[in-house]
Automatic annotation (TrEMBL):
Name assigned to this protein: MFS transporter
Pfam families listed in its UniProt record: MFS_3
Keyword Transport part of the UniProt annotation: yes
Source organism phylogeny: Bacteria, Bacillati, Actinomycetota, Actinomycetes, Mycobacteriales
Transmembrane segments: 57-80, 92-121, 178-197, 231-252, 264-282, 294-312, 318-343, 355-376, 382-401
Record membrane topology: Multi-pass membrane protein
Organism in which the protein naturally occurs: Nocardia pulmonis
Major facilitator superfamily (MFS) profile domain location: 19-406
Length: 538
């Protein structure tokens, strides 16, 4: 029922693709610019009244749009041309960053203007993220997707570790204006690469899905995909406690270790170094360990780094521990991200990744808030110890909640025959009831029912709102499968776009337990007729 596992390849293998290499370099520069922008924005606010609140709002302004718009942006990335969507979003971000540069240079910047522009940049980031991740399988071979995910995570972590250091140096030398200008230029670099990329056209006769229906279909897909739900659960189990170290590291650096801002930058740099090291060694680890064991190892290592932040007597010991923490962070995130990309078919990939992104961002945001409250009530050390204990439980939980080792075969496979019609329904006619009749010997009934449960999940993943298997009490060997689809157009999407080789495997298994030829009926609901009122004269 699953495709054979792909052999791990070198972490650097995706960079052999000219398009991927250009996009990765452009994104690395953009990640550096984004984190430089954060430092520059915070520096502008440090002398304002209520500086503590305003500085904290910088992160809120940039991350809140991602949480609010993650799923809608995933829907758009599946409905629109992803290349054009990325060009539009990155261009808009370049304009916002350019405006921020100009108003800062002219002295017209105010906290309100700054936070508004940062919020708009966050909207652009929200629109970019699902589409950006969804195009990765279009740029590299399937067996290179885990390596591409590792490179993507490395780019983000290098930006997070190195960007603030570069920004700190530039701000101290020439002020924040140049930092904002560099960020604007980084977006233009991404736009230039995207414009040069010629994405292959997709042949599809059907019109674009309606946004609300597309959202419902995407959520229905995830509900009917146990392997994806398991990855999302594992993400929550890791990110929730892991967020404690990121949230409380500034307090550890300043209050416990007595470090300056440059010392805090070194701690972030250690995490970045560990992430780069993790990316270079991940392919070797994948050859030795399953994804489940990789996630367990990552939880243990990040838990150890969290304990070190709480109790290590010197900054150098914390620094070394954070290198291993960065390694663990990249290992966990790239493993979960690559599994999501392997499990999601192209037609719903951005929607699925947007849900993963929401879980990731939400877990970090809620986790940071919770650990901040715990640290305020009981102390930073207690909060870090509790988080480390939960990471230990996260590692142990892989024993009974493993992720799928092999990937579903999501290769498109439009294998259903076209319906035989005497009446051509309108695209919006519906709901559509599809009935499939099977003849099953009594001795195969139990195996047939178990196999049909997998077929039922396939129908729901591809668009069925309801699914059920019935047994005909008038014929001992006859079973009837019934599923309902929203409209005739939606059912045609099942025929032409949404079926995969994995769905075909599920249906092929049914043939082992049936005799004769199955029969399929397509029924379109008749709209209710309003009764005509007649009035009698009194």
């Amino acid at each position: 029922m699953t495709a054979p596992p792909t052999a791990p390849v070198s972490t650097w293998a995706p960079l052999a693709s000219r398009v991927y290499r250009a996009l990765w370099i452009a994104q690395l520069v953009s990640n550096l610019g984004t984190w430089m922008q954060t430092v520059g924005a915070q520096w502008l606010l440090v002398d304002e009244r209520n500086a503590e609140t305003l500085v904290s709002l910088v992160q809120t302004a940039t991350t809140l749009p991602v949480m609010l718009l993650s799923i809608p942006s995933g829907v758009l990335a599946d409905l629109l041309d992803r290349r054009r969507l990325l060009i539009g979003a990155q261009s808009a971000m370049a304009v916002c960053a350019g405006v921020l540069t100009v108003v800062t240079a002219t002295g017209a910047i105010t906290p309100g203007v700054l936070l508004t522009l940062l919020f708009l940049l966050g909207v652009g980031q929200a629109m970019t993220a699902p589409a950006w991740q969804a195009i990765q399988p279009e740029l590299v071979a399937r067996n290179q997707i885990p390596a591409a995910a590792a490179l993507g995570s490395m780019s983000q972590n290098v930006g997070r570790a190195v960007g603030p250091a570069i920004a700190g140096a530039l701000v101290s030398l020439v002020g924040p204006t140049l930092v904002f200008a560099v960020n604007a230029a980084s977006f233009l670099g991404v736009v230039a690469v995207l414009v040069a990329w010629r994405r292959p056209a997709t042949d599809q006769d059907l019109p674009a899905e309606r946004p609300i229906a597309a959202l419902q279909t995407g959520l229905r897909f995830i509900r009917a995909a146990p392997a994806i739900r398991r990855v999302l659960v594992r993400s929550i189990l890791f990110i929730g406690p892991a967020s404690a170290l990121w949230a409380l590291l500034p307090v550890v650096a300043h209050a416990r270790l007595g470090l300056s801002s440059s010392g805090y930058g070194l701690l972030l740099g250690a995490l970045g170094v560990g992430a780069v090291g993790g990316a270079t060694q991940l392919a070797r680890l994948r050859r030795a360990l399953s994804p489940t064991r990789l996630l367990a190892l990552a939880a243990v290592l990040f838990g150890a780094a969290t304990v070190a932040a709480a109790v290590a007597p010197s900054a150098w010991m914390v620094l070394v521990a954070l290198v291993f923490g960065g390694f663990a962070w990249l290992t966990a995130l790239s493993t979960m991200n690559s599994i999501m990309q392997l499990l999601l078919p192209a037609w719903v990939r951005a929607r699925g990744l947007s849900v993963y992104q929401l879980v990731f961002m939400g877990g970090q945001a809620v986790g940071a808030l919770v650990w901040g409250v715990v640290a305020g009530a009981f102390g930073t050390a207690v909060a870090l110890w509790c988080a480390a204990a939960l990471l230990g439980l996260c590692a142990v939980s892989t024993l009974w909640l493993p992720v799928r080792v092999t990937a579903l075969d999501t290769t498109p496979a439009a294998y259903w025959p076209e319906p035989e019609l005497e009446i051509e329904p309108d695209p919006e006619d519906g709901p559509v009831l599809v009935l499939v009749t099977y003849h099953v010997p009594d001795e195969a009934a139990a195996d047939f029912a178990a196999a049909m449960a997998r077929v039922g999940r396939s129908r729901q993943r591809t668009g069925a709102m309801e699914w059920r298997l019935y047994r005909d009490v008038g014929a001992v060997d006859r079973y009837i499968e019934a599923f309902v689809v929203r409209s005739w157009e939606e059912h045609m999407r099942q025929h032409q776009v949404r079926l995969t080789a994995q769905d075909r495997l599920a249906e092929d298994e049914i043939e082992r337990y049936t005799t004769g030829v199955s029969r399929t009926l397509h029924l379109v609901a008749v709209p209710p007729v309003q009764p005509v009122r007649t009035w009698r004269r009194g």
